[in-house]
Each structure stands twice: as C-alpha cells, then as structure tokens.
Write a structure and sequence with these properties.
The chain is mainly alpha-helical. The chain is built from 5 helices and no strands.
Length: 80
C-alpha cells in the first residue's frame, strides 16, 4: 500500500469509487503521472525518465492532479 493510501483513505466504498472515477477523468498528462505515483508507487525521477520529461514537469502535473482531485472530493487532502 502506498504512503498516500495509508494517509488518505476515503471512508466508504462509494467514496473510493468516486475517487477512482475522478482519476480517470483527469487530463491525460496529469492522469498519467498520478496513476504512476499513486497506483504504481513510482518515484518522480523514474516517471520523468519513462515519460521523457523533466522532474519539475512531473511535480507540476502531480500537484495539478492532486489539486483537481482535492477540489472534486470536497476537501479530502492528498499528500504532496
């Protein structure tokens, strides 16, 4: 289980379902980075190498994805 899942778990099956649905609706670039970090537990440097982008770009996309999900989940915070 990732450090994110341990620290921020929606409290019901319905909340988890909503969360996963919202992840699928993220813009493609943000979704790609989010899935690699959240679901696969990959490090940002590894993601940057695989996607052939810079680490700052990975960080920017990760922040943007978390911000959008945070807003859509009514304040359930995802760690940085």
């Amino acid at each position: 289980q990732s450090q994110f899942a341990e620290s921020c778990e929606p409290d019901s099956f319905e909340a988890w379902t909503t969360f996963h649905h919202l992840v699928e609706e993220l813009p493609e670039q943000e979704r790609q980075v989010f899935e690699m970090v959240w679901y696969s537990g990959m490090q940002q440097q590894e993601i940057a190498t695989i996607l052939d982008i810079s680490v700052p770009t990975v960080k920017r996309r990760w922040r943007a994805a978390r911000k959008q999900l945070f807003e859509q989940m009514n304040g359930i915070e995802l760690l940085e």
